[in-house]
Design brief:
It is built from 5 helices and 13 strands. It is of the alpha+beta class and about 270 residues long. Strands 1, 2, 3, 5, 6, 7, 10 and 11 form an 8-stranded mixed beta sheet that branches. A 5-stranded mixed beta sheet has the order 4-13-12-8-9, with no helix packed on it. Helix 1 packs across helix 2. It starts with a helix and ends in a 9-residue tail after the last strand. The structure holds 2-oxoadipic acid (OOG) and magnesium ion. 2-oxoadipic acid binds next to helix 3 and strand 6.
């Protein structure tokens, strides 16, 4: 059943407040799912609230594009979320865990979109709008307690998006089988391949276009698109500290320095 406009607004405010106050809330479904169109309406309202606070939209993200992520979270269909400049951490910069609830990090690849994509034109190929690719890190931080959510819940929560880091942009090349490795300090915490992302991350772009068309999410010139994690996400606890690095063979590396929050943030 779809939500009323009032319910959409209420849920968007609840999730927005959970993010700004770093306090987790309980998912709406209690295990049962609610309708996807309403979930994207909540996401749209949530994001317009953030935009009205001055955050600038700068891209999109795909989630649950790899089996490792689907298995980890129990969600088996692709989701789309929205990125703003407030989530953008420069390569080699600092990620402050203060203000986050129970962050996790995952290695990704990113696409750069060179021109506005006309989603109403059936001949549109979003892959031809890509002018560069880069290694990336995504930091997710579900606003739901213990990362427990249904498919609709996680869409409403803007797909757990919290922060991201983009490495050096390079020319587009085949991405179907590049080795991926993520290190946390001196430890290698995950290994995989870009092929784990839908067989080839480029496939995510067609799904992105479909979902964006259906739920009125624009894809604009200059947008960054995160293709989804190649491996399961790794928790960043308050005591973590150190540097997280993702390396994608042939694309290069990207890193972020993790600083424990003032109040020991990052505790779940
Ligand atoms: C949802 C976000 C999923 C990905 O790369 O698969 C995602 C979550 O796991 O909380 O970003
Ligand atoms: Mg991700």
């Amino acid at each position: 059943m779809s939500l009323t406009d009032g319910e959409v607004v209420e849920l968007a405010h609840e999730l927005d407040d959970a993010q700004t106050s770093a306090h987790a809330v309980t998912g709406r479904s209690g295990g049962e799912d609610w309708d996807v169109a309403s979930a994207y309406r909540v996401q749209r309202h949530l994001m317009s609230r953030r935009h009205s606070r001055g955050e600038r939209p700068i891209g999109l993200k795909l989630g649950f594009t790899s089996r490792a992520k689907m298995r980890q979270m129990g969600v088996h269909e692709v989701i789309v979320g929205q990125l703003t400049d407030a989530m953008d951490v420069p390569d080699g910069g600092e990620l402050d865990l203060g203000g986050l609830i129970h962050p996790r990090v995952e290695p990704e690849v990113a696409f750069r979109i060179a021109r506005d994509v006309d989603l109403d034109d059936p001949r549109t190929s979003i892959a031809t709008a890509v002018d560069a690719v880069a290694p990336a890190l995504e930091i997710i931080d579900s606003r739901y307690r213990d990362f427990r959510f249904s498919y609709a819940d996680v869409i409403a929560d803007n797909t757990s998006a919290a922060a991201f880091v983009i490495g050096p942009w390079t020319a587009v090349r085949p991405l179907d089988n590049l080795a991926v490795r993520m290190d946390l300090g001196p430890r290698t915490v995950s290994v995989g391949t870009t092929g784990a992302i839908l067989g080839d991350p480029i496939r995510g772009l067609r799904l992105l276009a479909e979902i964006s068309r259906r739920h009125s999410i624009p894809i604009r010139a200059g947008d960054v698109v995160l293709a989804g994690a190649a491996t399961a996400a790794v928790p960043l606890t308050g005591g973590t500290g150190g540097t997280v690095t993702a390396q994608v063979s042939g694309l290069g590396r990207v890193s972020v320095r993790v600083v424990p929050g003032r109040n020991g943030g990052g505790a779940s």
